[in-house]
Fold:
Amino acid sequence: MRYATLQEREHFYKSEIKLEKIEQWFGREKGKVNFAVIIGRHTKIYPEKYKDDASTTIIIDEYSSLEDLRAQILEFLPEAVYYDRNVYGENDVKLGQELAFDIDPENFNCPIHGSLKDKIKRLQGLSFCELELQMAQREAMWLFDFLEDRFSSVRAVYSGRGFHLHVLDKKAYLLSEKERQELAEQVKKEGFHIDEWVTAGEMRLIRLPYSLNGLVSRIVFPLTKMELQTFDPIHDKRVLPSFLDRVTF
Structure:
């Protein structure tokens, strides 16, 4: 796993991103979806003309189609592409928010690399090892079971680093901020290592399925519950962009 170069990002978004799959992902939505990009906050890789904006979050709320969205992504060549979990109606009135859970491997206490606090002290806050990735995947499977007891439509997504769980029930979209916070606290009390601010709704952005995670050169990819159990994020060809030398895996 490594940073993707600007040339590799360009090739991916020109030739590999599956717009029809993205359209299917949002097919259930009735309102408008906003997108966002971060050009080079973590990788420090960015087009020179966007040097001053490399670390900012750039919102894409004006686009005519997914092809238009792709053209704007190609303009910025970002390290990350997100979508806003809020769903908007006319005059940008918020209709609801998709409920999501974020499990990142660096949040686990690793017997080799220590806690997140230890890694931050070593200036390695975003780093993770294969063992931590396995711990995150195992917890994502347990959380999937936990959520299925409470909701009817749950989907998993490999984020390129960790795992996201999306709840697509209508009642979940309509949860209040207080209800989201209470749910996040409940899940934390159950022992799950989630990013609470994502579930509570404070962080609205989440990685766009089928986009490229430029921090690790992996494709953000939806998984069924069965696939989540056997998924190999290191070697699975579905998440490897073509610019990686697959012979080495």
About this structure: The chain has a mean pLDDT of 90.
